[in-house]
Write a structure and sequence with these properties.
With about 180 residues, the chain is an all-alpha fold. It has helices at about 5-25, 40-60, 65-75, 80-95, 105-125, 140-175; strands spanning about 135, 135-140.
Length: about 180
């Protein structure tokens, strides 16, 4: 590896660490731990259950795939079931109002998610020179792309959920006034 790559990686990691520390202090409005109400706790429990079964079922998929596909996926094959289960859990919680805490500073959280997503995509793009497929096997850097995409999908879901909630509130206000 050349010195420019190592220095840029070091600087990037330092910047990310500093930003994480700064944002983490402003993560919750009251500066305390995350707070969920009873309804959110129950929904999160159902989300864990659904995500667990999804992960187990997704983990069985390699049993029916050909050896060529399994070889092509390489080490990233082990991250796919975990990522699918994680996205199922997060999506379920988002759509059941159980993902974001009651005392969350949403703006800091969104900035944090954008940074994580962009950082993972940046790490993926750093490997362009080396290539993403070596000897017919996807490199582990594909996991960075997967994580970056997951962060973007989570943010999109949060924004869509906000739009749906605002529309529902507007409709409820119209019914109440009538």
């Amino acid at each position: 590896m050349d010195i420019v790559f190592l220095v840029s990686m070091f600087i990037t990691i330092v910047i990310i660490c500093v930003l994480i520390v700064l944002l983490n202090k402003n993560f919750h409005v009251d500066g305390k731990k995350a707070r969920y109400d009873e309804r959110q706790v129950l929904a999160r429990g159902r989300g864990y259950k659904i995500a667990f079964y999804t992960t187990v079922i997704t983990s069985m998929i390699p049993a029916v795939l050909s050896d060529n596909i399994i070889r092509f996926l390489g080490p990233s094959m082990y991250f796919i079931p975990l990522s699918v289960g994680l996205m199922v859990y997060i999506s379920y919680c988002i759509w059941n109002d159980a993902y974001l805490e009651l005392n969350l500073n949403k703006k800091s959280w969104i900035i944090y998610m954008v940074m994580i997503g962009l950082f993972n995509i940046f790490l993926f793009l750093l490997h362009i020179k080396e290539g993403y497929v070596k000897d017919g096997v996807i490199s582990i850097s594909a996991v960075n792309l997967l994580m970056g995409i997951m962060c973007i999908v989570i943010l999109i879901q949060i924004f869509i959920k906000d739009i749906v909630d605002k529309k529902r509130e507007a409709d409820d206000d119209e019914e109440f006034e009538a």
